[in-house]
Design goal:
6 strands; 5 helices; two-stranded antiparallel ribbon
Length: about 180
Amino acid sequence: MFLKIAAAAVEAVRGAFSPVFEELRDLETGYEGYFIVDSDPVSAKKLAVHLEESHPLGRLFDLDVILSGEMPVFADGGGDFGVSSLKKPVFADGGGKLGASSVKKPVFADGVRPLGREELGLAPRKCIICGRPVRECMRERKHTTAELLAKYDSVIAGYDSSVIPDSTFVIPDLIRNL
């Protein structure tokens, strides 16, 4: 089951981003893929969210865009997002406008971290079972593992498995042995 999800996620990322580098890992905790793409962080995050919400298996994907301390996100005078060497944080409010905000995380921060949906004024990810914000369900442990696996099975059953057969997700021996 998880191999099918991983294969679909890798193919979706490859198709959407044309990565310049990728590393795939088959770990005890699950499959992971790391991709370097030629895109600014905001555009990449918006496309990742689109994949999560529109691909038939996208609700089962977890696509993060990682920021480093050297890559703050900013808005230029025209309101477009891009990458800059600015050293001061920019905040996005819930409506997606830049300026003073109640959002606690700055878009620029020291160190490495994922770029959040809320920082771009996007709605938080919803729970695949009940539709509430997924972080609430995770924090409150609203659903059992059995419920989640049953929902995953249901989503996968509705997906045409002939589109991406399990055999397309091949992890090179070098990466498998890391």
